[in-house]
Design goal:
The complex is a heterodimer of chains A (304) and B (257).
Chain A lengths: L1 E5 L5 H12 L3 E5 L7 E5 L2 E6 L2 E2 L6 E4 L9 H20 L3 E3 L11 H10 L7 E4 L2 H10 L4 E4 L9 E2 L16 E5 L4 E8 L2 E8 L5 H7 L5 E4 L4 H13 L4 E8 L5 E7 L4 H8 L3 H11 L7 E2 L1
Parallel strand pairs in A: 1-2, 1-6, 4-17, 6-7
Antiparallel strand pairs in A: 3-4, 4-5, 8-11, 9-10, 9-11, 12-13, 12-15, 13-14, 15-16
Helix pairs in contact in A: 1-8
Chain B lengths: L1 E5 L4 H12 L4 E5 H7 L2 E5 L4 E7 L2 E4 L5 E4 L13 H21 L4 E2 L4 H4 L5 H12 L29 E7 L2 E4 L5 H8 L2 H11 L3 E7 L5 E6 L9 H15 L8
Parallel strand pairs in B: 1-2, 1-6, 6-7
Antiparallel strand pairs in B: 3-4, 4-5, 8-9, 8-10, 10-11
Helix pairs in contact in B: 1-8, 5-7
Classes of the chains: A alpha+beta (304), B alpha/beta (257).
Chain lengths: 304, 257
């Protein structure tokens, strides 16, 4: 069977379930929103998942993971979810079958500035970036970027990129309380490149806001998303970086300036690809399911 | 200049300060709270350049000027409760992500150059270290330890336990230092694995560790502790570990015997 680990309230989960259903391949599900239903047991070398419709007997040949994110600080929700995810992560560390993606390989976008270094190391241009908790440094950087700067979170905790405007000068004095990432503002179209194994899907996005996710998610605006192309060497680098990190699937973001300069912004190891395919019509979910189904494994040690 | 970060009651840090003082080496210390709450820093990066600085006791130090960093962070810091809970979570992660990037950008030796799994309290992190090390030195993972899981919601630093079936050895600055009770045959066996240890250290960034071996039913790797607590260890062992680390940071300088 194919095993899906994630959240039924996430957009990706139901789309994958539907696509797996269409594929005719049997699958099992661990819905982390109902963490108390499941148990992970060691049995010699094997890991058995029991609970809900998992009886711990069906060999798992491939696993898709997109862990649930607790959207609450309620310990009654967080504690059992965290415990289940910790058990699953231990299992995934030893799982002999294919895993999209192993959590232990998926930490790099926790630190955006660190990840920019990885992107630069494979040859991508990256925006000039400053991480600091010093107001004077932020002001210097803003001036050196000729007043065209954006700021956003330094970690992968959800935050929107914002253009530094006049009203933000006052807030710079708060920096000693929390470091922030500043970047030169590269105006232009956004690209998202989804890598699935050796396959790439390029989506071009246009929105009124500098962060298209804000346009779509917070402001409820329509954004334009369409299939696109990028040079072969860009795609090749995207595939290489994804594999170097030990990932099978990745979503890499780019900005393309009016002068053709293409800068890499980040690599998301758990991309919400349904956001893009729902607008562009690209069949990313289908490619992921095809990858899962076509995986061959000599002997699996995960049973669901 | 060497930077040490941690708590003043950490025995290894105290030993390092003593040895550094004897050798008249410059070493600056920052408590964990000081590091995360009040140490001013900047890290600037572009496609082909990375630079930055730290402000330590009012003095600005270019990141390239550091000869080494000793990280003994217990990860006990949490933002002030003057922030509401959601903001505390946000400030915590922004701070950790920033410091990880800054430390990663430093080219000097860092003990330990912990992976993101450590910074994120990933319970699988010590298991991954153990799996990789066992593979590197061609030993199995202890069957009794396959269910070994750090207790609680996160992995806290541990001291060596007392068990007849377990032998421990420290790896510090490229040297093996046996803990009391470690047999000569184990030391001899591991001494042949120098290249494998070095490759594992290079891969994981862990240059100080305690490795526990299970003797019951054959020699196996039981656990790898990347933040060994040394409070109960003999003086000469702690001193040996500190010397080995300093020697690794400043290989061309003598550390007092």
């Amino acid at each position: 069977v194919i095993l899906l680990l994630g959240s039924s309230s996430d957009h990706v989960f139901p789309r994958l379930l539907a696509e797996l259903g269409r594929s005719g391949h049997s699958f099992a599900v661990v819905d982390e929103d109902h963490a108390a239903r499941y148990r992970i047991d060691r049995d010699g070398d094997a890991w058995r998942i029991r609970g809900d419709r998992c009886d711990g007997t069906r060999p798992v040949k491939a696993i898709f993971v997109r862990h649930a994110v607790a959207r609450t600080l309620d310990p009654d929700v967080i504690v059992p979810m965290s415990a289940l995810q910790a058990d699953l992560n231990r299992m995934l560390l030893f799982a002999s079958c294919s895993v999209i993606n192993r959590p232990s390989k998926a930490f790099s976008n926790y630190s955006k500035a660190y990840q920019l270094g990885l992107l630069a190391a494979v040859g991508f241009d990256v925006p000039r970036t400053l991480v600091t908790n010093i107001p004077e440094e932020a002001l210097r950087f803003h001036e050196e970027c000729e007043g065209r700067t954006i700021f956003k979170g330094a970690s992968n905790v959800m935050s929107f990129a914002q253009v530094w405007k006049a009203e933000h000068f006052e807030r710079v004095r708060l920096l000693p309380s929390c470091p922030t990432q500043f970047q030169e503002f590269v105006a232009g179209a956004d690209y998202r490149v989804h890598i699935v194994g050796e396959e790439a899907f390029v989506t071009r996005l246009e929105a009124s806001n500098e962060d298209y996710r804000r346009s779509a998610l917070a402001d409820g605006e329509q954004i334009k998303a369409e299939p696109a192309e990028l040079p072969y060497e860009v795609i090749e680098r995207c595939i290489r970086l994804t594999h170097q990190l030990g990932l099978i699937v990745g979503g890499i973001d780019f900005k393309e300036a009016a002068d053709g300069r293409l800068v890499a912004l980040e690599l998301n190891p758990y991309p919400q690809f349904t956001f893009y395919e729902g607008r562009s019509g690209q069949r990313i979910t289908q490619a992921i399911v095809a990858h899962l189904v076509s995986t061959e494994v000599a002997r699996t040690n995960v049973l669901a | 200049m060497i930077l040490s970060c941690g708590t003043t009651n950490d025995r290894l840090l105290r030993e390092l300060w003593t040895l550094s003082g004897e050798a008249a080496w410059s070493i600056e210390h920052m408590e964990e709270r000081e590091l995360f709450e009040s140490c001013a820093f900047a890290l600037e990066r572009s496609a082909n350049r990375t630079r930055g600085f730290l402000v330590v006791r009012g003095r600005r130090f270019d990141l390239r000027k550091f000869e080494g960093v000793i990280l003994r962070l217990r990860q006990a810091w949490w933002p002030s409760d003057e922030f509401d809970l959601q903001d505390q979570v946000f400030v915590y992660h922004e701070t950790m992500a920033s410091w990880f990037a800054l430390l990663d950008s430093m080219k000097c030796p860092i003990v330990n150059r912990f992976g993101l799994g450590w910074w994120l309290h990933d319970l699988a992190y010590p298991l991954e270290l153990r799996t990789r090390l066992a593979h590197a030195v061609a030993l199995p993972v202890s069957p009794a330890a396959t269910d070994y899981v750090p207790q609680g919601e996160r992995h806290w630093p541990t001291a060596r336990g007392a068990s007849d079936d377990v032998e421990s050895i420290y790896r510090a600055g490229g040297r093996l230092l046996p803990a009391p009770g470690c047999g000569r045959d184990l030391l001899a066996r591991l001494s042949k694995c120098g290249d494998a240890f070095s490759a594992w250290e290079e891969e994981t960034g862990i240059y100080l560790s305690r490795i526990d071996f299970d003797r019951a039913g054959g020699l196996c790797v039981k656990a790898v502790e990347a933040f060994p607590l040394l409070e109960e260890e003999p003086d000469d062992l702690v001193s040996g570990i500190a010397r080995a680390l300093l020697q690794a940071i400043r290989p061309r300088r003598e550390v007092g015997a």
